[in-house]
Every structure is written in C-alpha cells, then in structure tokens.
Amino acid sequence: MLAGKVIVVTGAGRGLGRAYARAVAEAGAAVVVNDVDGGAAAAVADEIGADGGSAVAHAGPVGPTATADELVATAVAEFGRLDAMVTNAGVLRDRSVVKMTDEDFDVVVETHLRGTFTCARAAIARFREQGGGGRLVLVGSPAGQRASFGQANYSAVKAGIVGMARTLAAETAKHGITVNALVPVALTRMVATIPAFADAVAAVERGEPAPDELRANGVGTAEDVTPLLVYLLSDDAAEVTGQALGAGGDRITVWTHPSVAAEASRPGGWTAEGVAEAFGAELAGRLQPYVPPVAAR
C-alpha cells in the first residue's frame, strides 16, 4: 500500500512509534526512524532491515528546527525524496498543576507542540519543492480531547496539535498535501500510570492479548492503531484531510470539530442577570462533558 514511499516517523524507538515505523515498512515504505535514544532508533531500523524492509536510524531530540531539517535531509540523502512525516515524538511530565514546574511544562511543549510544528514545516517545504503532494499525520491523544488529570501540559499540547492539523490542512490543500491528526488509544507505557489500565498494560507487555472488554471499548495494542495510519499515508486517502481520527482496539473513530452546542440570543445584548437566567432556562442542560467515561466512573 506504501510501496515506493519514503516516510519519517519521529519518536519511533519504542511503543506506538516503533509500531508505526514497522507497519509502514511492512506496507512497502522506506523509513527514517527517529528517536532521542539513538540505540533504540538503531534497533528498530535493524528490525525492519531483518524483515526485508528499508530503514535508517536518526538520533536526535524533536523540537529544534535543526532536527526537523536533518530528518528531511536524511530522507532525501538516503532514499531520494520525502513522501510523508509522522510526528509521534513525545514525553510526559505528569503532575497536578500546583506541583507542575515550569520545566515540566516547557519540555512537554517543546517536544510535542514545537516538535510537531518544526517537523511539519520542514516536511511541507520539501513536499512543495518536490511537487506531487505529501502526507502529514500529526499524533494527538484523547488527553487533548477531554480532561486528563495530572496532564495539564500534555492535554494542552495535544489539543494544540489537533488545531494545528486543521489549519495546516487548509494552508496546504492547494498543494495536494493532506494533514490529519491521529488520536491513538493503546496499552503502552504512556498510559500505564492510569489506574484503570495499569494491569492491562502489564499484561500486554508480557505478550498477552488486550482484554476483549477493553478492545470492544476502543482500547487495544499499539499494532491496532497502525492500519489507520497506513491508510492515511496511502494514495487511497488523498481526499481525507483536516480530520481528527482515532483508532484503538476494535474501533476507529471520527472526532467532531469544535462547534456550537447550544446558543441563546437577547435583542440588544446581555446583562449578567440575563445570562444567569438563560443558563437556568436554556443552556444548563446543554453543557458538555469534559471527563472521559473511564475517569468519570
């Protein structure tokens, strides 16, 4: 499905990123495997090569413009072109907001949000130089769609990534470039700190399958996310852009764009008392849930 394509996957040394890199290679793409841990990146590239695929490792922290430029340059130098970029690299610094330091906040913003921006910008520039379009898949998270206790930094950047995907899709459509946000749900170390998932993550790491109940509710392994990713990177998805699309377990999902859920109007404008009255009579029943169901139970 991806034969002849050249794809960069950031943060691909382990977890979801490793699954992404292996899946696109299996689908026929040549892969630049990036990770801040050079040994992990090299191990994944070696795995791909051992399976008959083409891959090269790139060691470097995502965030700086220099890294983004190096990733594009590596793809071109090693494989002659760049067809797609998957911005997966990320870190966690989980703490409730009163305990979160400036450094905790800044490193998450640098890696996730700035890293997505710099890599997307570098890839778009290359796509336009080459002609023929391109694919960007920016990795979001359910934490950016709903509340995630102790992750104010992570929730903020993942929400920003989905917003960035919509805007980049609008800016690049005339060049034949698609930009989508992937919202994965998988039992990896990144979710092991959530009590509801801790035992299941440990089981999956032991090589056991994800429980059927979780799979039916959209939570599975990293490999369950990869078919949607491969599709979005393929020529078949040429008309799919500006979307937030989720995958997990037995489900794929289309997330709504932010939209007005309810409204009230008053000729001549509002007073605070009028707002209070409208909330009681018209709007209170339309307020939106912000906590995911698993956390609300």
UniProtKB/TrEMBL annotation:
Keywords: Oxidoreductase
A Gene Ontology molecular function term of the record: oxidoreductase activity
InterPro entries named among the record's database cross-references: NAD(P)-bd_dom_sf (IPR036291), Peroxisomal_Beta-Oxidation (IPR051687), SDR_fam (IPR002347)
Family: Belongs to the short-chain dehydrogenases/reductases (SDR) family.
UniProt-recorded name of the protein: NAD(P)-dependent dehydrogenase (Short-subunit alcohol dehydrogenase family)
Provenance organism: Pseudonocardia endophytica
